Amino acid sequence: MTIHRSLSRREFLLSAMASAPVLAGVSRPSNPAIGELRANILSTLDYPRVALHRARVFTKVFQATEGKPWEVRKGMALREHLRTVPLYLRPGDRLAGSISETPGSMPLMAELGFGEEGTDINPQWRGYLKGQVPRDVWEYWKTRNLWGRFAASNPGGPAPVSPESGRRAPYKLVSNQGHLCPSYSELLKVGLGGILKRVRERKAGERDAGNLAFLTAAEESLSGVSEWVRRYAEFLKGDLARIAAKVATEPPSTFHEALQLIWFAHQAIHIEGHGWSCAPDHIDRLLLPYYEADKKAGRLNDAEALLLCENFVLKMLDNTYWGPLQLTQALCVGGSTPYGHDLTNHLSRLFIEAATNLALAEPLIWIRWHPRINQEFFDFCLSRIAQHTCFPLMWNDKVVPQGLMELGVSREDAYNYIAVGCNELAIPGQAYFNPGASANYLRSIEQALRTGAATFDSFAAAVGTNLSRGIERSYREHMAVFKATLQWGRTSFTSCFFDGCIEGAHDMVLGTKYNILSCGGVFFANAVDCLAAIREVVYQRKEATLDQVAAACKANFHGHERLRGKLLAAPKHGNDDPRLDDIIHLVQRMRDEPVKAICRDPRDGTKFGNTHITKAGAVLTGKVTGATPDGRLAGTPLASSVAASAGVERNGPTAVLNSVAKLNAAKSWQSGYQVNLRFQNSMLANKANRAKVRAMLNVYFNKGGQQLQLNSIDTEMLRAAQKDPAQYRDLVVRVAGFSEFFVNLSPEMQEEIIARTAHM
Q1: Are 257 and 243 in contact (CB under 8 A)?
Q2: Are 287 and 305 a contacting pair, CB within 8 Å?
Q3: 578-594, pLDDT tens digit by residue?
Q4: Integer Cα distance of 172 and 17 in angstroms
Q5: pLDDT tens digits along 474-531
Q6: What pLDDT, in 10s, does the model give residues 51-63?
Q7: Run of H or E including 434
């Protein structure tokens, strides 16, 4: 088979502006000006460029404030940066506020750490930091920033590396936490000036040094953001200048003003230092009163509202921490109340339309399914996926709130959840996603192959013991990073949008309303398949021993082809096979029990949730993973979701979804899992077929399926895109925990997408 090379980012962008569109995931902006803005943004996202203003200002301020509390110094540095950073506005942009001083450039977060990110998915970008970090900046910070201080306290942990090394960095040590959703409801009611007033009133008379440090930092940060917005008012012209002048301190009165204020605040959170996976609250609900008032007053029509929604989506693409790298920024719309009432509104539809019109890989677009969802709206959502966008992705209100309530969240708050990342969950202003341990299923199974266990039960017990030890080890490692973050990862501005932080005078990292850490785990489907194959071949049919299976895996099945055939013929998850029901529950229990026994939030003792996050690991981890007892060959892809291992779906989409529904989402996956499913395009593009798919998905969600993400692209189109990438430049696919233009994926990732069963 010939594997065609993926289109480079530069080639992709040149073709995006030069070649004629085809009807394959082509962007369809509602206004030519939006199309021009889209092209302008993409033209500067061809390579990770570095902006230096923030790093230089932070270095100068921190050098001048030795002896002051860390968070105060950071607040002062943020204010000085925002007071002095050069401003710009892209041609045709109707929302101001940028991440750095240069279009398409990412700022260096010197107080966190220096290191490359995203080069596992984009290996052509390795080395992008070389020559970019001034030596004096590196020398000052290498032992003083979050990563440097963590390394000093944990000699066995990852040590800071020179920016010249070209090495990837642990994301928490260079981008802080992220995976959060600030609450913007109060911001819209009282404006930046009102929140600043609250901070100053709380600060008056405060004597506790720790409380005073937080409040001082918050005052500096809020003042800096307000001054930054006022600078834009002086920089801009016309209505944009008027809007900026107003929202610099006052609450908004119109849809455009509200959208602009949310963007200023949201962008400032990224500038302060949260690079990954931030969602701007339930934006369709927050903006609805302004939209309706403007419509009633004749100030706004749907065409203008759609244009502004498209503009906002483009801002999310343009101005995130890591520039062109995949950050899983998200918009989440729709949903229901705890009493089952539908919260979907006209803006929910407009934001979905805006995002899918633009045919972008980011931001991610999520909807929340519930039993009373308007079926016409649900059909509309599926029809947008048929345009080769993979959006919207879906969560289930019957299941997600139940899982959050298992972790101590009130019913009212649980139904306010929102998607914030690959498939992570948060609650606006009350809880954010935070990994605190991980479960390595396949390593635990590999280790157990050497035990010579006489029965399957004893083999499973050995797997469980190995898994428990691995979880305990990873918990210790994660908590070491978390301890450092508690001290040097504070963000006072962001904290102002989390409940109780101003009143309690403490940073959000020290505790929000709900402190939910999580234990992650990937390749669950492979684990189920491995255990099922071992049980059948070794213990039930006695056609091999554990030692023989171990030897076959070590040899990548060379010389063991017959044994591999038997392992492959064993039951496989994703086919609604009742012989696997107990194995599914066994794997869940082997992970759940040690997590309950070992893992607790160090701040208040809250128990951990569990999650399954596979961003790009199906291919990347698969490349470095040996052969496994399910018959999978070394170096080949692992399971991209909890639904099924690569290439084993044999009984159609209903069987896949029935298999997933057997997972106990509320008890065992409280923090989220992901399910990949691929349809032939005609199944969603054709209205009659789409109605059948919609009925099937309604059943899946009613049976307890937690999450779902769909691709609706024919294999023939994917092959055509490999041969002629310039003609399929806007074709967007869901990989696993991220989405991307298909032509930008590596050949291996393209092949993994193509190899997925295309259900009819």
Answers
A1: yes
A2: no
A3: 999 999 999 999 999 99
A4: 36
A5: 999 999 999 999 999 999 999 999 999 999 999 999 999 999 999 999 999 999 999 9
A6: 999 999 999 999 9
A7: strand 434-439
Does residue 364 form part of some domain? Answer: no
Is the torsion defined by CA of 91, 95, 97, 99 positive or negative? negative
Strand, helix or coil for residue 107? strand
Which residue is associated with the tokens 């450092």? 484
pLDDT of 277? 87
Pairing state of beta strands 609-610 and 517-521? parallel
pLDDT of residue 158: 87
Sequence-ordered list of residues with C-beta below 8 angstroms from that of 409, at least 6 positions apart, any chain: 401, 427, 431, 514, 516
Residue 22's pLDDT band (cuts 50, 70, 90): very low
Q: How many CB atoms lie within 10 A of CB 667?
A: 13
Q: How confident is the model at residue 125 (pLDDT cuts 50, 70, 90)?
A: confident
CA distance 707 to 472: 28
441-457 pLDDT, tens digit each: 999 999 999 999 999 99
Could you check whether the bond before residue 363 is cis, i.e. omega within 30 degrees of 0? yes
Supply the DSSP string of 81-111, one letter for each residue: HHHHS-----TT--S---SSSSTTEEE--TT
Tokens encoding 131: 């020559």
**Residue 177: pLDDT band with limits 50, 70, 90:** confident
Q: Are strands 105-107 and 49-51 parallel, antiparallel or unpaired?
A: parallel
pLDDT at 322: 67
Helix axes 302-318, 255-272, angle to 10 degrees: 10
Which structure tokens are listed for 104?
Answer: 């398409």
- Token pair, residue 194, equals 């009102």
Kind of pairing between the strands at 434-439 and 517-521? parallel
| Residue that is written with structure tokens 């007053």 in the block | 297
Quote the CA–CA distance of 51 and 57 in Å, as a whole number.
12
The amino acid at residue 616 is A
Tell me if 684 is assigned to some domain: no
208 occurs within a structural domain: yes
Q: Are strands 418-419 and 425-426 parallel, antiparallel or unpaired?
A: antiparallel
pLDDT at 24: 58
Helices (H), 652-755: 653-661, 665-668, 682-685, 687-702, 715-723, 747-755
The answer to whether position 116 is within a domain reads yes
Domain count for the chain, please give it.
1
Determine the Cα–Cα distance for residues 548 and 366; give it in Å rounded to an integer.
Answer: 46
Assess whether pLDDT exceeds 70 at residue 1: no
Q: Which spans in 319-397 are helix H?
A: 346-358, 375-385
pLDDT at 8 over 50: no
Please tell me the pTM assigned to this model: 0.94
Name the burial class of residue 510, with classes exposed (0-12), middle (13-18) and buried (19+) by CB atoms within 10 angstroms of its CB: middle
Burial (CB count <10 Å: 0-12, 13-18, 19+), residue 200: middle
Interatomic CA distance for residues 97 and 82, integer angstroms: 11
The beta strands (E) that lie in 370-417 are given as: 393-396
Confidence band (pLDDT; 50, 70, 90) for 751? very high
- Name the token pair of 611: 């999650």
Q: Which two tokens stand for residue 55?
A: 């790093």
Cα separation, 710 vs 719, in Å, equals 19
Domain of residue 78, residue span: 49-300
Contact 727, 19 (CB under 8 A): yes
pLDDT digits (tens, 9 = 90+) for 381-425: 999 999 988 999 999 999 999 999 999 999 999 999 999 989 999
Task: Say if CB 104 and CB 44 are below 8 A apart.
Answer: yes
Alpha-carbon span 679 to 591, nearest angstrom: 32
Within 10 angstroms of residue 159's Cβ, the number of other Cβ atoms is 13
**For 531, which DSSP code?**
H
Pairing of strands 393-396, 418-419: unpaired
Q: Residue 14 pLDDT > 90, yes or no? A: no
d(CA 20, CA 613): 37
How is the chain split among helix, strand and coil, in percent rounded to 5? 50, 10, 40
